[in-house]
């Protein structure tokens, strides 16, 4: 019995940190996809008829939902819309995971850049040369940089 309790305690001790692991960014995005899909579906039910009646009072629009208007020219509109939502969520998930994987390297690069910039700014600038200390310009026609 003690062994079994010890085993269960050890299992719980190992399982709790594993369960506490944060979700990958893609999992967060995938979790939101159904909510976005339901929201888009709700927007398709929005009745624009009263708004159209107010904008054009001499024409009766009756009930015109966004869904009705979208289906008028594209009977396959809803299927494509839902596929686009989930396809976009999938693409965003891959991008978020790639960014999360690259994040440590990006942090190191930014930290190194900040360090290098601080070091460059800490060095005093070289003394300025006075015009009389500069070499004379080459005579006309010699050593033309652009090769006339």
Task: Provide key terms for this protein.
148 residues; mainly alpha; 5 helices
Summarize the helices and strands and which ones pair or pack.
Elements: H1 2-19, H2 25-44, H3 49-55, H4 66-73, H5 77-122
Helix pairs in contact: 2-5
Describe this structure in words.
The structure is a single chain. The chain has helices spanning 2-19, 25-44, 49-55, 66-73, 77-122. It contains five helices and no strands. The longest helix has 46 residues, at 77-122. The protein has 148 residues and is an all-alpha fold. The protein has a domain at 22-115.
Q: Short summary of the structure?
A:
The protein has 148 residues and is an all-alpha fold. It is built from five helices and no strands.
Count every helix, treating DSSP H or I runs of 4 or more residues as helices: 5
Oligomerization? single chain
- Estimated radius of gyration: 33 Å
Shape: elongated
Q: Could you state the order of secondary-structure elements as H and E?
A: HHHHH
How is the biggest beta sheet arranged?
none
**Helical proportion, percent range:** 55-70%
Backbone structural class: mainly alpha
Mean pLDDT: 80
Give the N-to-C terminal Cα separation. Answer: 97 Å
- As residue ranges, the low-confidence spans are 1-18
Number of strands: 0
What amount of the residues lies in strands? under 5%
